[in-house]
Amino acid sequence: MSSPPHTGQPFGLRERKKARTRRTIQEHAMRLFAEQGYDATTIEQIAEAAEVSPSTFFRYFPTKEDVVIQDDYDPMIAEAYLRQPASLSPLEAVRRAMSEVFAEIFAEDEQTILRRIQLIWSIPALRSRQVEGRMAGMAMLTAVTAERTGRSADDLEVRVFAGAVVGAWIVAVERWIELEGATPLAALMDEVLVFLGRGMPLQP
After folding, report:
1. How far apart are CA 44 and CA 62, in angstroms?
2. How distant, in Å, are the alpha carbons of 14, 78, 89, 141, 150 from that of 145?
3. Which regions span the lipid bilayer (predicted)?
């Protein structure tokens, strides 16, 4: 299956620096969680390992749960989605936007993301927070799809579109975990979006 084209447009320096700091904190947090366990690891230990102050930690992550749950990807996907050519369908625009974000960020960060998602799925409180986050992601996608199409964010079809994409995203992530990262998340996400675009045929 061919990948959607990458426009090559870089993200801003400020966004890159913020994402790099966030990634550094998360990498050290995930290492400490693996070594000591999630419950035994403190915010002070994470900040010290990442060579930032606790106050800097809290600028990026309000709680220890958030160091596992939060990322910058939804806003980056929204930005990339809105700048796709108007001639593209919403689904193809989402597909290309996700390809851009995966190419820019996930290539550097995929193993850390995998460890984060595995931890989230193993701890009920984190998994619950992740579901809340996907609901917020669906609201974001609804809003930007309404903006892109000139329709209302209350439009049922706009909301169904956003729900279908987010549902497909969740399934792709679950399959990624099942495969223990053997297939890149970008490839799985592209596969499920292509399936949506084909009308989800389910012939025997």
Report:
1. 13
2. 26, 9, 10, 6, 8
3. none
Report the chain's mean pLDDT, rounded to a whole number: 88
Residue 51: pLDDT over 80 = yes
CATH number of the domain residue 31 falls in: 1.10.10.60
From CA 140, how far away is CA 74, in angstroms rounded? Answer: 8
**Structure confidence at residue 116 (pLDDT):** 85
Mean pLDDT along residues 163-190: 93
Structural domain including 15 reads 10-64
Cα 120 from Cα 28, distance rounded (Å): 16
Share above pLDDT 70 across residues of the chain, in percent, rounded to a whole number: 93
Helices (H), the chain: 13-36, 43-50, 54-60, 64-69, 73-82, 90-101, 107-122, 124-149, 156-178, 185-197
Same domain as 22, residue 117 = no
**Torsion sign (Cα): 57, 62, 64, 69:** negative
Placement of tokens 């199409």 in the chain = 149
Predicted confidence band of residue 108 (pLDDT cuts 50, 70, 90) = low
Distance separating alpha carbons of residues 19 and 109, to the nearest angstrom = 10
The answer to whether residue 2 is domain-embedded is: no
d(CA 12, CA 47): 25
